[in-house]
Amino acid sequence: MRILHKLSDLAANAKFRLKLIVSYCLLVTFIILILGFAYYRISAGNMLRNMQESLGNIVLNNNQLLDEKLRDIQSKSEVLPIDNELYEVIANVDKHDNESQLKADRRITSILFQYFGGDADIYSSFILTPEYTYGNAARMYVPPEGFFQSDLFRASLMNQGDLVWMPTYSFADTFGEREMSGFPYEYEKLMSGVKELNLTYIDEQGVFHSLPANQQRPVLMLSFRTDYVEKLFADYVHKSKLRHLTYGVVDVHGSVVIASDAKLTGTRQAPAWLAEAFEMRQGSFQHVVDGRERLIAFHQMESTGWMSYIEIPVADALADLDKLRSYSILFLAAMLLVSVLLAYLLSIYITKPIIRIKKAIKMMELGNFRVRIPEHGRDELGELIRMFNQMNGQIHALIEENYASRLREKESELMALNLQLNPHFLYNTLTTLYWIAVENNQQEMSRIMLNLAEMLQTSTRDKNETWPLATDLDWLNKYIYIMSSRFENMIETRIEVDEALLAIEVPKLFLQPFVENAIIHGLAETESGGVIVIKGRNEPDGLRFSVEDNGCGITKERIDKLKSGEIRSTGMANVEKRIKLLYGPQYGLEIQSSREEGTTIVIRLGRQPDPNAATRVS
User: Where does the HAMP domain start and stop, copy by copy (predicted)?
Assistant: First the structure.
C-alpha cells in the first residue's frame, strides 16, 4: 500500500507533459503487446497446423510406399502354393538323401528367384521344412530346427496360409544362435513375412493333388533388414533438418519395428500414446513426452496393421517464431522511440497554450488586466483561451466600472455636501423673494418662485436614485410651468400616463432632459402651436414612456452621430446610462425623428430596478 501511495503521489506531482508522454508510451506499448501476442498465437497455430499436415503427409506417403511393396509381395506369395513345379519338388524330395535335397534346393532357389528375385529390397527368401532350408543362403542361413521352434513358425500356423508380417526381431535370440550374440553382423535384426504353404497340384487329367496330411507343410519366409523402412524416414529427416525429430514403426502389441533410436528397435518399449493412436488409426495430436510438449503425426499401415509415426517437439515446430519474437521486440523498441517523439511534440502542442494561460494569470496577479493571449484554432484549448480573454476583459470592465461607480459616488457625495451647505438658506431666500413678489402684486413671478422653491426642496430632500412616478411628474409639471412662463405660453404640454403607473419607482428626473430638448431645440423657433405630449403605458416586456413634439425634428445623420457619440448630449447620455445600470442592457432610449415632422423619444424601463444589472452591463 505504501508503494502504491508513493506512486500515486509521484504521478500527482509529475508535470503534465511527463504524464502525457508516459501515458502515450504505455498506451502504444499495450497495443503493440496485444497485437504482437495475437499475431504470435495466430502464427503459432498456423505453423503447428502446417507442420501437422506436413508430417501427416510424410507418414502417409511412407506407408503408401510400404503398403504397395508389401501388397505386391503378398500377391506373389498367394500364387506360390499353386505352383506345380514347387509342388513336385517338395512332394518328390527324399528328406534322407542329401543329394536329393541339394537338387531340390537348386530348383526351389530358382523358383523363389522367379517370384522375388527382382525385388532388391527383399534381403532373403526361404522355404523351410523341418529337414532343410531351401533358398539362397549366400547372405544368411536360417537353421530349420531353430525356425520351427520360433515365434515366426507359430505365427504362420495361426494364420492358416495367410502371409503374416513379423516385427523386428533379433536373429540370434529368435533362432537360438547364442554363439552369435554380442557380435555385430549384417542381419542382426530383421523383420519377416511368413506363410504356411498348403501346396496343391492339378495334373493333366484334372486330378487335384495335395501334400499328405501327415507331411509337415513348408513355410515361406521373406526377410527385410530394418534399413529398408528406415531410409524412407531418414530421407525426410535429412531434408527437414529438424534436430530433435524422432520416428518409428510399432505393431499393435507394442513391438518396435524400427525407431530413430536404434536401441529401441526390436524391443517392446512402445510410446505411451500408442493405444490412443491405434484407436484413431491416423491423424495427429499433441502429447507430453518426458515433460515436453510434442507434436505427433501417425498412420496405420493397411498391409501389416503397424503404426508409423513422426514425433517432434512443439518448440522445434515453432523455432521460426523466435525470429518473429526478435523482430517484434525490435519493432516495439522502434515504435516506443517514435511514440516518445510524437508524445513530446504532442505535449508541446497541448501544454504551450496552458503555459501561456499560466503566464497570463501571473500577470493578472500583478494587476495587468489588459493582457490578451493570441487565439489559434477552434479546438478545446483555443476555446479555453478565448474564454480566458473574455473573462479577463470582463474583469477589466468590471474593475473600471467599479472604479467609475466609486468616483460617481464620491462626486455625488461632494455635490450633496455642497447642496447641504445651507439648503434652508436657499429655500428661505426663494420664499422671501416669493413674498416680495406678492407684496408688489407680481403674481406670475411669485408663482415661479414658489414652484422653484418646491422643486429645490423635493430634489434635496430625496437622496435615492429612484422615486415614484407621481413625484417625478409633479416635479416635471413645475419645471414645465417655469419654461412655459419663459416662452409666454407658446407651447402646450399634455401628460397622458396610466394612473396605475403613478406608484411605480422610476429614475429621478428621467423625463426632464427630453422635455427640455423638445422646448429648447425642437420648438425654440415656433411662435405658436407647439405641442409636447408625454405618454406612459404598461407593456408585456416593461414600461414604455415617450416624449413627442411637433418641432423641427432631427436629421438621420445627427441621430447617427448622437448614437455613436460624435455629438455629445450630456442629459440624454446620462439618462440612458442610468437606465441600463438600473434595469439592464436591454432597456434604454430610442430616437424617432424626421426633418420638419417632429421628434419622438421612446424610453423603455423595467418594472423594477435590477440589482445585478450593473454587473451584466459591464
Answer: 348-400
